[in-house]
Amino acid sequence: MKKHITTLALFSLTFILTFNIGYSQVQLYANGFEGTDEDTYNLTTASGSNVDFVNFTASDYILRGNPAANSSIDVQPTGFSGSNLIMWEDFDGYLADGGQLYLTTNDINISGASGISVQMKIGVTNDVADRYEASDFLTLEYQIDGGLWVTFGDFRGVINGNTFNFYEDDDLNGTYTAQITNAMKQLNYDLDVIFGTQISGSLMKIRIRAFSGVQEEMVIDDLVVEATVLSIDDNQPITNIEVYPNPASEVLRVSNWKEPKEYIIYNQLGTQISKGKNTENKIDIQNLKTGLYFLKFENSDPIKFIKK
């Protein structure tokens, strides 16, 4: 019996989860518009009034679906993913508040994230020369923690005698030179690079703001937000400091404890949750929510533990 108890004690000391912290690129938001209408986003007018996907007339519409089923599209788009995308044409006369359409995502959690990037596909499907007027536009914007909307992508019609005369101002200097056609263009925006500073906060929203006059057909697909967050390598052993029990509900015991040490507890995104100095071989965790955490002592590798 004594041997059995000793074995259990040794097992509880060695059954720990250890790891090294690194960073990896992960998706914080992704919508290919294949699910239900307004799944994790909203369609509204400028004042926030709800807008539904609808055929106003045969050639005036805001739709989510397969473009091959829409006979009003002049030239079918290529390069989109899945079966569905969002498409529109000549909706300005049907929407209040200046005729603009707003597609706004739900809140996206960016706590602890860095290197935020936004991706999307865009195309135009009317190939009549000078069909897109200067008043026709599409703008990509972000908002953090309820603050101001900031433009990071800007597209507009340019009267120049060309077909597919819809262009991006790809360096945001007021000059529209990057042409958009029915071959949908993959857009990639590194927000830190564009604005020369790290974009950070707690909650982000992405907004697509557009205006479409007579026969100005536009299509969008695959809106994605990515960022760099903490990643975990479970294959690297830690030999200096261990914690037990793991999972724990109230107190973490610290093995190999010799003297008081400063520590920090992080959540999965790398956000600091608490810090302190353990004056004995235990740390109070009863106020933490249930979940996975990382414990980092000064001059030691991080340790993964679970609060139950």
From TrEMBL:
Top-level division of the source organism's lineage: Bacteria
Secretion system C-terminal sorting domain mapped to chain residues: 243-301
InterPro entries listed in its UniProt record: Secre_tail
UniProt keyword Signal, yes or no: yes
Keyword Signal (UniProt): yes
NCBIfam families in alphabetical order: Por_Secre_tail
Protein name per its UniProtKB record: Secreted protein (Por secretion system target)
Organism name: Nonlabens dokdonensis
